[in-house]
Amino acid sequence: xxxxxxxxxxxxxxxxxxxxxxxxxxxPTCALAFNxxxxxxxxxxxxxxxxxxxxxxxxQRQTPAVAHFAQHLTDLATSVGLVxxxxxxWLRRTAAALLLPQELMFDRKQAFALYSWDKGSIxxxxxxxxxAVYVALMLASRLYEKGAMMLYDAAWAxxxxxxLTALALWLNIPLLVSACSCWVAVDQxxxxxxxxxxxxxxxxxxxxxxxxxxxxxxxTKKLFSTHHLWFIPFTTFVNLKYADGHSPCCLSVSMxxxxxxxxxxxxxxxxxxxxxxPSTRSKAEDSRRDGKPEKSSTDVLNVNVSWRCWADVTHxxxxxxxxxxxxxxxxxxxxxxxxxxxxxxxxxxFLTASNLLRH
Length: 359
Description:
- Helix 2 packs across helix 5 (86-99).
- By secondary structure, this protein is an all-alpha fold.
- It has helices at residues 2-12, 26-49, 52-60, 64-79, 86-99, 108-111, 124-146, 150-153, 157-171, 174-183, 185-201, 219-223, 227-242, 250-268, 283-287, 311-314, 328-358, and strands at residues 272-276, 296-300.
- The protein has one domain (18-55, 111-275, 294-358).
- The protein is built from 17 helices and two strands.
């Protein structure tokens, strides 16, 4: 029990920005795996909650290797009696009610559509590979610039949505592509506002993209921030070209993705990481410091705005930071309320535009 308590404390205690574990590889790797696992858990739950007709048609569209693997998992779950367990049936019904509510089934065919394409044309799998390569290059460049700390940064929703979309494109699940688009809709709309404001007025109106103008921001980070502008047009194009547009069920799935992402980031990613600067003084100079600490540089992470609202944003929109210094649960509720209201509004625009373009 004592060992479990130590592991628990090691993983979830991220309150000290000077903790050496935050600058090493193990804790950031585990934190990224935890956050990605939460997002994947929601995605798998949404997939399993879909109707059986969808699963049958989906299985027919897979490669022999994927179909064989999925069938093997199904047979294994059936043989051990998992599928027939009342608890499993209850979980599936609950997941369906929460993630795929009937109130959002405006068009059942559109909600559970699958990709189809002409032979010889670019297929969604190729586009999924493109996204996967983009994510890999982005992560590699940031690890090269800042080291292991960037594994925490990789847990931002805009990064996880890229990886999850790549997987959904590869596995032919348009519903999850739509959910990932809705998941980051508010953030990426603000990027459009900031970009347009910078072009027209020479300054950022909101502040979400303000870091691009910092002199110490490397060109690779600027390059691999462009997905904030092209990701939603990209997914909209893919779902319109190869399916029936965006799924009307994406709102509920995106809300759970957002909630799990913020909770996961708050639990195991630090607000900031301090880096002690190497000393260049002589021993005599050190002895005259009377035990004062070394100077250090600090990188503020605040992944998924899970600790407090971003300072560049509250400078322009102060009301968003009204719960920054309140207990964490109050801040998370406020965070999700603002995010959820924004996503509900954008979901309406999203689906309307998708349907207009589809017809």
